[in-house]
Amino acid sequence: MAASLSRPCFISLHLPYRQGWAQHLANTFRFQPVAVRETPRVRQLALQRGSAVFLVNERRVPASAGTSSCDFLYDVDPQPALGTASNVCFEVDDVLGLCKQLQSQGCSLLVPPTELRDDGGAVTYGVVSSVVGNISHTLLDRSRYQGPFLPGFQPIQGAPSGTGDGIEITHFDHITYVCPRGGARTALDWYQRCFGFHRFLLNPQEKPAEGYVLGGHGVGMLLLALQSTQSTPAHSCKLVFAESLSQNGTNQVDTFLEQHGGAGIQHVGLCTTDIITTTRALQQQGVRFFTPPTTYYSQQDKVEEIRAAGQHPHMLAELGILLDTTVPGDKGQPGTDATESPSQEYLMQIFTHPIFSEETFFLELIDRRGALGFGEGNIRALWKAVQ
């Protein structure tokens, strides 16, 4: 029987020696430092915005000095040669039972069920290896814990609250993995079988056996998606698996695999309730966003689609925000005539430039106005634009 996972508790980022990103996440993206843990070799810093938490692991000594298992709590060491997002922590009810179940299914258990406690109570966690690249998953039960973050961490006093800074980020919306050829289907099957995720079709025309395919004529990408069983958006999780189908040349998926050194997490979607205000505020802080081609906003059908959704084409173009509409009754189908109904379900999204020096990990802001997909029409448009 597959597991039933709750919301992502945190996503871990690992950085090589002298490649600090925590300060950038705090100062530029305005995530608030909430807890810290330090050993002679590693500094772990938890930064939070809404319910979205990044656990940044910074090395304090060169890789040649080595690390031990006690240096990392609630995680394992992926021994990064470059910055990487390598762990997604899920809250679960029964860590011991789930770890036994996963082991019986052939999964590699990196950290056996372990209990930690402090004055705030106790937690139990284990870490299992994913079938995708360097990714691992921490399985955490903190139902008996009332402390500010997790045992072993010290709360950070006096950190700015972020209230009134115009940045409205509520939770992790989705996580996108990049897989090698043939790997997306393998990953999809593994997360369904082991973690109980359900298939999420990106388009009504998508055939489950084939997935959602972009491009053609030797250049393309396959997308497959899953959703956890939780009903509320803030407590659920969506996973997207991207695989290159290109036969001629390279694309952004191939570039990730080459520069990252294999499969891994390409980007994390952050849900916002006000993408226009949030984008403006982050730009003022120095966040660099991907600039779509100007032709995206000048196409007449896109102008009409944006206006029918109640938004202003010039404002979205100025900020670089993309909009994708779903007509009620035809959910998830991009490219539908947005003028057919005055009641539009749509989403808006914008992507940052890569966070690290390599063209690997980046962030996305996504503002859902009833739409459940990932902006498939925008994915197709951007795919063509960046090739």
TrEMBL record:
One of its GO terms (molecular function) is 4-hydroxyphenylpyruvate dioxygenase activity. It comes from the Eukaryota. Pfam families: Glyoxalase (PF00903). Keywords: Iron, Metal-binding, Repeat. InterPro entries: 4OHPhenylPyrv_dOase, 4OHPhenylPyrv_dOase_C, Glyas_Bleomycin-R_OHBP_Dase, Glyas_Fos-R_dOase_dom, VOC_core. Transmembrane segments: none annotated. GO terms for biological process: aromatic amino acid metabolic process. The keyword Cell division does not apply. Residues 7-142, 171-319 form the VOC domain. Its cofactor is Fe cation. This is 4-hydroxyphenylpyruvate dioxygenase. It comes from Campylorhamphus procurvoides. The gene is Hpdl.
